[in-house]
From TrEMBL:
SUPFAM superfamilies registered for this protein in UniProt: Composite domain of metallo-dependent hydrolases, Metallo-dependent hydrolases
Alphabetized GO MF terms: hydrolase activity, acting on carbon-nitrogen (but not peptide) bonds
Source organism: Ciceribacter selenitireducens ATCC BAA-1503
Protein name: Uncharacterized protein
InterPro entries found in the cross-reference section: Metal-dep_hydrolase_composite, Metal_Hydrolase, Metallo-dep_Hydrolase, PhnM
Length: 382
């Protein structure tokens, strides 16, 4: 049975068009045509119709699994909850970040992380879920775990993190120690041992990236670098086959990433709040400078759609530009050529959107043509 969505403001790569869209067999069969005979007709009442959002980096699953330190929920409960959160946020394709960093606690324990990655890979929910392995390059022991998950087809995206104290995000060694003390309640001796161990592994990082990148590419796993600093780092990751540069630390690095044809990724919460939570590069500054390639949820899936409102309102981007940051570019970066835009023959991943109290809000979500979420707006047949 086909569906005909009509009376909508449809955002395509060419602009915003008032009209209709037909869904057949999970794909967009037509734009601007009359309803096919026998189709279910749904009047969207002039609401926006956007492509489903694609989230390349989201950590929210960690809080669903471990909402408080050492308080773990059963994985089926956590996975079903994150599935519904994503649908309500308009995210139809989600890459969930699962960290492999030996020595961390709770959900980031590497043995638990491996269990979670497999459970997520096997989970069949309302939206399309993918495993984004975040690998800490100073963790020698987890290289075999990551390799195994690649071989088993569990990983869709692999990002390389380097949190060696004295550079990158933690260029201040004292700041890294404070982070361990605050987040993991480590004492001074444990902090010193961890800093020493990580610094000792720094000389092995390049060879580890080369091995894992070479192993991942034939399996179709997309590659990303994390917290890039400097053109040399960007150039190296581009040579390794990376397509994404997550959270470049400064404008010059972001420019280098764009010049290397990497998708530079920033957080939607950064856009929504107007600044980085950690004091890093402002996503708004990066967008205005033309060096931001995409946005992700980071830690808050509910920020992605309202961030589009900031882009098209306060920042003056047009709708196709804004949607490319949260759908088109992420699809291209991960080789998902069947989605990311509203166009004929693309997968019918769609969201119905309206302004509620000054913020964009999801009224309905379709994934591969099936409506998986509805709130606050009728979607019944006309």
């Amino acid at each position: 049975m086909s569906q005909h969505l009509e009376n909508a403001r449809i955002v395509t790569p060419e602009g915003v068009h008032h009209g209709s869209l037909t869904i057949e067999d999970g794909r967009i069969a037509a734009l601007g045509q009359d309803a096919p005979k026998g189709a279910t007709r749904i009047n969207l009442g002039g609401d926006l119709l956007l492509p489903g959002l694609i989230d390349l980096h989201g950590d929210a699953i960690e809080k669903e699994v471990e909402p408080r330190p050492n308080a773990f929920f059963p994985l089926p409960v956590a996975l079903n909850t994150i599935d519904r959160r994503m649908a309500a946020a308009g995210v139809t394709t989600a890459f969930h970040g699962i960290s492999f960093a030996e020595g961390e606690l709770g959900v980031r324990d590497v043995a638990f992380a491996e269990t979670l990655a497999r459970a997520l890979h096997e989970f069949s929910g309302a939206v399309d879920h993918h495993v984004h392995i975040r690998y800490e390059l100073t963790d020698a022991a987890s290289e075999t775990r990551v390799t195994r998950l690649i071989d088993e087809g569990v990983a869709s995206l692999l990002s390389f993190m380097d949190h060696t104290p004295g550079q990158g995000q933690f260029r201040d060694v004292a700041a890294y120690g404070a982070y361990l003390s605050r987040v993991y309640a480590k004492d001074e001796g444990e902090i010193l041992d961890r800093i020493t161990a990580k610094q000792a592994e720094a000389g092995n990082i390049v060879a580890r990236v080369e091995r894992l990148a070479q192993h991942a590419r034939p399996h179709g796993v997309a590659l990303a670098s994390h917290d890039d600093e400097g053109a040399d780092r960007v150039a190296f990751m581009a040579r390794m086959g990376a397509t994404i540069s997550e959270f470049p630390l400064d404008l010059d690095t972001a420019r280098a990433g764009r010049a290397a044809e990497l998708v530079t990724l920033f957080g939607a919460p950064n856009v929504l709040r107007g600044c980085s939570q950690s004091g890093a590069l402002s996503a708004r500054d990066a967008i205005l400078a033309g060096v931001a390639g995409a946005l992700c949820s980071d830690y808050a899936p509910q920020a992605m759609l309202p961030a589009i409102g900031v882009l098209t309102g306060k920042m003056g981007l047009d709708w196709p530009q804004a949607l490319d940051l949260v759908a088109g570019a992420p699809a291209r970066a991960t080789g998902l050529g069947d989605r990311g835009v509203i166009a004929r023959d693309k997968r019918a991943d769609l969201i119905r959107v309206r302004d509620v109290g000054g913020a964009l809000s999801v009224a309905a979500t379709w994934v591969a043509g099936a409506q998986v979420y509805g709130f606050g707006a009728r979607t019944a047949a006309a």
